[in-house]
Amino acid sequence: MDPTMTAALREVLRKPLDNLTGDDFKSFKHLLRDQGQITWGKLEKADINDTVDLMVQVYTKGAGDVMLTILKKMNQNQLAMDLEKDLEELGGQQCSPGLVRGDGGVKVDITADSEGMVDASALSGGSPTPQQGGDDNAAEEVKKKKTSLKLKLREHLKKRFSFVHEESGVSTVQDIYTELHIVEGRTDGVNSTHEVSAINMSQIGRGPSSEDKQVKLANMFTDGSATKVLTMGVAGVGKTVAVQKFVMDWVEEKANQDIDFVFVLPFRELNLKKGERFNLPQLLQLFYPNLEDLENVLDLSECKIIFVLDGLDESKLELDFGNWICKLGEESSVDMLITSLIRGMLLSSALLWVTTRPAAASQIPEECSYLLTEVRGFNDPQKIEFFQNNIKNPEKAERIIDHIKENRSLHIMCHIPVFCRIIANVLKKILEDQSKKESPKTLTALYTWYSVFQIKSINDKYPEDKKMSAKEKGDLLVKLGKLAFKHLEKGTLIFYEKDLEECNIDVDCGALKAGVCTQIFNLESASTGEDMFSFVHLSVQEFLAALYVLHEGVLRANPFPKNWKEKTSWRFSHSRFDLFKMAVDKALQSQNGHFDLLVRFLLGLAPMLEPEIRSPLKEVLPQLAIREVSIEKTVQYIKKKIREDISPERTINLFHCLNELGDNSLVEEINRYRNSADEEKNLTPAQCSALAYLLLMSA
């Protein structure tokens, strides 16, 4: 290019950059790097003059088009208009549609001979040449291939996402799906509190708010305002089922038909490929093997794509947001591929939907500009709708709904869809068998019945000679409990074969492979072929962990040892009260309450295992039924702790523990106090927490 022309072009390109703020200029450089021709190493410390020099050196006459594209992408429309006018005056540099790719990038053919010059016919807008006629045929061929790949993808997704496994059989997600309560924004900041504790606290004084902006699942991306969405919600609240519903609506052409391809990449499956290297098309080919030769058939940048990254909280990948790649064909670790997608640097035209539990949401830097949404599960009308949809007998459904309304602790938990499924499962069985006693009123009683019902049903699917004995069923419960406890301490919800083997669980055990434990423990096959395991909900994992702790205590093993000496001395002298006391102390030492529900379950098991009480657990674990003077001592110890200076969240959980133990004396005391005429007397912190508990249980 003529030196005079080059100098004039530099001057024209410098003007819009001079008008950008520091942050906008940094964004400009990031987007320039995304064009794939200039590395970040050259751009990171480049000032305005350096940046202009690099653009002219690499793109020569195409530099104007590149800058126009980036300014428009940044919504710097006035600067883009001024630049376009300056380029026209300069001559031959007007924005050429033929240069712009579907993702907003610019097609530039850079060779040593051409010095980066573009095809003149692309700039002239003249009549089609024979070459262009050939391009039309090629475009038609690409369209056919895209349609073929889309049909194959729909077929794959339908097989993978259309069904939900229930105890009664397999149902389609479209048949059983109940609309979820999803709102824009989040309830509060990053919250690492135990999710059940957070649920309890959030129910105090909360009612429907007119300020909550409702989000319809099918409309998240349709208004064009959001290209990246981060959806948060506690475990079991329905995030993954929402993904299934979103996918199936696209597959069945009910929503989002402007999207060409939907690629779901669950983190629990991506974990299996940690450390391996692929480029993005190769990774997609691995997860969607029926999309043959995807890398060579389709230019992904020309397609409208959504990536659904489900379960960020389950990720074991090293997400380093300070490093990324931007070229589709560039190979890197799975960790960096996913980081680059989330950051929006790789295939920047793609839509992104990330789901996670709240505590993991902070992994994504704020500058990634995600629209925040929160799944709050079911509101009260949706709870009723769920039971009416899932219990076909209207009379039984009504009785179950009435029972839940009468038991506040169950009613609170019912905003979580998985919990609704658990309670429907238990109460339906109890209503079917008139010989059973009254319906469970505490959380521990509910989970005890649920676990025993599921473990006893194993034999229903086995021939007579392969049926499991009561002892074998009890042993399986304890082994699952060990797995639950060990990984609860680590904060792990997803397990792989080696994790089961470490807890002496046979991965080829018929009870697991046949799917008869699917209501307790899920076996899932990844797209890549490996097996993954999980408990159906965090609360089920915590109940089984509590069962394991109690079992270890009976065997004189200390599940909470601080050191070798403590572990050894425990074997010679301890009582069940010592176990309960140690568990309460451990829960109180946790700042985020991650052992709250485990302790609640552990203490709730005590009255159920008294010799005179008929408990379903005694059929499979009779060794747990030992009379000890532990309940009253534990009650007194908890009351002592409540009067100490501990957080309201921990105090409220201790009130829940007293309720599980059958003691409501402190609550009755504060109720009498509340109804007394002496309104001027100040409440102690413990009484304030008791009042909060009363509000929670009577709201």
TrEMBL record:
<dbReference type="GO" id="GO:0005524">
    <property type="term" value="F:ATP binding"/>
</dbReference>
<protein>
    <submittedName>
        <fullName>NLR family CARD domain-containing protein 3-like</fullName>
    </submittedName>
</protein>
<dbReference type="InterPro" id="IPR051261">
    <property type="entry name" value="NLR"/>
</dbReference>
<dbReference type="InterPro" id="IPR004020">
    <property type="entry name" value="DAPIN"/>
</dbReference>
<keyword id="KW-0067">ATP-binding</keyword>
<dbReference type="Pfam" id="PF17776">
    <property type="entry name" value="NLRC4_HD2"/>
</dbReference>
<feature type="region of interest" description="Disordered">
    <location>
        <begin position="119"/>
        <end position="138"/>
    </location>
</feature>
<dbReference type="InterPro" id="IPR011029">
    <property type="entry name" value="DEATH-like_dom_sf"/>
</dbReference>
<dbReference type="GO" id="GO:0005737">
    <property type="term" value="C:cytoplasm"/>
</dbReference>
<dbReference type="InterPro" id="IPR041075">
    <property type="entry name" value="NOD1/2_WH"/>
</dbReference>
<feature type="domain" description="Pyrin">
    <location>
        <begin position="5"/>
        <end position="89"/>
    </location>
</feature>
<dbReference type="InterPro" id="IPR027417">
    <property type="entry name" value="P-loop_NTPase"/>
</dbReference>
<dbReference type="Pfam" id="PF17779">
    <property type="entry name" value="WHD_NOD2"/>
</dbReference>
<feature type="domain" description="NACHT">
    <location>
        <begin position="227"/>
        <end position="360"/>
    </location>
</feature>
<keyword id="KW-0547">Nucleotide-binding</keyword>
<dbReference type="Pfam" id="PF14484">
    <property type="entry name" value="FISNA"/>
</dbReference>
<dbReference type="Pfam" id="PF02758">
    <property type="entry name" value="PYRIN"/>
</dbReference>
<keyword id="KW-0963">Cytoplasm</keyword>
<dbReference type="Pfam" id="PF05729">
    <property type="entry name" value="NACHT"/>
</dbReference>
<dbReference type="InterPro" id="IPR029495">
    <property type="entry name" value="NACHT-assoc"/>
</dbReference>
<feature type="compositionally biased region" description="Polar residues">
    <location>
        <begin position="124"/>
        <end position="134"/>
    </location>
</feature>
<dbReference type="InterPro" id="IPR007111">
    <property type="entry name" value="NACHT_NTPase"/>
</dbReference>
<keyword id="KW-0433">Leucine-rich repeat</keyword>
<keyword id="KW-0677">Repeat</keyword>
<dbReference type="InterPro" id="IPR041267">
    <property type="entry name" value="NLRP_HD2"/>
</dbReference>
